[in-house]
Amino acid sequence: MMVKADAREAVITLINKEREGGQIDRFLLKNIVDIFVEVGLGKLDHYEQDFEIQMLDDTTNYYKSKGTIWIKVDSFQEYLSKALECLRKEKNRVSHYLHSSTWQKLYKVIF
């Protein structure tokens, strides 16, 4: 469905904007993400299939790209510091607007 794909892409774009330091409306994102859960009548099937899989794939690509750059230009200590800060920020995203079940999956794709 086009609407779901558009909503998913909009949310992923905003997540990436926030990852890059931009300001976003977290309340709006929470409402959109909640719709994916509500469509499944409380079950996570729609959330996982229509949103989470693509978001995790995008997250994997995002951090692969960042990690490649950081390894080339940063010391090990700086790299580790950045990685831990990203992990903290991703956990914060889960607590603000993603479903709590996403945390373990995000952790796996980041590390």
Structure notes:
Pfam families: Cullin (PF00888). This is Cullin N-terminal domain-containing protein. It comes from Arachis hypogaea (Peanut). InterPro entries: Cullin, Cullin_N, Cullin_repeat-like_dom_sf. One of its GO terms (molecular function) is ubiquitin protein ligase binding. The protein is mainly α and about 110 residues long. The chain has a single domain, classed as 5 helical Cullin repeat like (Up-down Bundle). Helix 1 packs antiparallel against helix 2, helix 3 packs parallel to helix 5 and helix 4 packs antiparallel against helix 5. It is elongated, with a radius of gyration of 15 Å. The protein starts with a helix and ends with a helix. The mean pLDDT is about 90.
Brief summary:
With 111 residues, the protein is mostly helical. It has helices at 2-19, 26-39, 45-73, 76-97, 102-110. Residues 4-109 form the Cullin N-terminal domain.
